[in-house]
Amino acid sequence: MNRKARAVWQGTGRDGSGHLTTDSGVLSTTPYSFKTRFENERGTNPEELIAAAHAGCFTMALAFQLQAAGFTPDELATEATVSIEKEGEGFRISKSVLSLQARVPGIERAKFEELARAAEKNCPVSKVLNAEIAMTFTLT
User: Fold this and answer.
1) Which end of the chain, N or C, is more open, meaning fewer C-beta atoms within 10 Å of its C-beta?
2) Which residues lie closer than 8 Å to 93 by C-beta, 6 or more apart?
3) SS3 of 137, please?
4) Which GO terms describe its biological process (predicted)?
C-alpha cells in the first residue's frame, strides 16, 4: 500500500510559499510557508501534519488493541503535540506528546495502560519518528 502527497514551493525559504495536495483530496492546494510553520499565519506546516498523523495512527492502533482484548471504547480522543527545535544549522522534530482522553466501559486502569503503551510503541507513525515519544491519558 502506498499513499501520496505533493508539495509545490515557489520563492525563497523565508519569503516563498507553497501548497500541499494529497491523492485523497483531503489536502487540496493547502497553503504552507515560513509564516505558517514558525509564526501564526493561517495554513498548515509539516509538524502539524505529523501531529495529525501521529494522533490518528495511535488512536486507531489503540482501538485495535482494545478490540483484541474484548473492549469497545465509547470514545478515544488524542491530541498530539510535536516539538521542533534548532539543531546545528537546521531544525529537528525532537518530541511528540500524545494526550489521550478515553471512555472505555469495564476496563481496569492497569489493563488500559498496558494496551495504550503497546499502541504508543507499535503504531507505524511512532515507529518512523526519530524523536522522543511520550503519552499521558485520562480514563473515565
Assistant:
1) N
2) 47, 50, 82, 83, 84, 129, 130, 131
3) strand
4) response to oxidative stress
Q: Which three cell numbers stand for residue 87?
A: 539543531
Alpha-carbon radius of gyration of the chain: 17
Q: How far apart are CA 124 and CA 84, in angstroms?
A: 20
Q: Please, where in the chain does CATH 3.30.300.20 lie?
A: 46-139
Angle between helices 46-68 and 109-122 (to 10 degrees): 130
46-139 has CATH 3.40.50.10540 classification: no
Strands 132-139 and 90-103: parallel
The closest of 34, 136, 1, 16 to 77, measured between CA atoms, is 136
> Quick check: pTM over 0.90?
yes
What type of residue sits at position 96? S
